[in-house]
Amino acid sequence: MDPSLRSQEDDTIQSIVLEAPWFKSSKRLCAYISCRALREVDTSKLLSQILHNPSSAPDGGSVPQTTKKLYVPRVEDKNSNMRMFNILRIDDLVANSMNILEPASVDADGNDREDVMHANDPVDLFILPGLAFDRSGRRLGRGGGYYDTFLTKYKELAKEKDWKCPLFVALSYSVQILDEEVIPVTPNDVLVDALVSPTGVTPITSAALERMKL
Description:
Helix content is 24%, strand content 24%. By secondary structure, it is of the alpha/beta class. The chain has a 7-stranded mixed sheet. It has a 3-stranded mixed sheet with strand order 10-9-12, with no helix packed on it. The longest helix is centred in the first third of the chain and has 17 residues, at 3-19.
């Protein structure tokens, strides 16, 4: 992609998400930290808005709480194992061996970060990356299976806890949306509920149509 077009699409996609009622109403979400080298839609504006929008501390204390609880990914090993940890500020992220930003498993005080799989409350929304997508919800990742494995585990957790399954929303450049059924799928692939591209939001599943009310 032409760098100026890519930058323009980054801004448009993030603005669409930030202005969407389904995003505004979300209380807890998981989102990826974009990496320019991986050609992922930028999420820096999105994450900045979430982390720099504090509400007053619930107990009247001096530590502000963000209005949304944000969990971001940390790759644990090469066996498709990934965890999602809660962060409160961008400074909570450190570069890993591949120069991708991710949270350390402990905070600056040495306390364990909250893992979304052990949280007491359900996540409303997942913001997902990918290489290519189609309008039937197929998502092409990078072959590692990290997201498909994690999303499958989270769906099982939600079912076990009798929680509503979160919306799986992928961010896509216009050139990444392919014709239906071009993308191969395996039994382990998790379909997305909706796509956000520069032209707007494309709801795919009945859950997206119901909750996005487009």
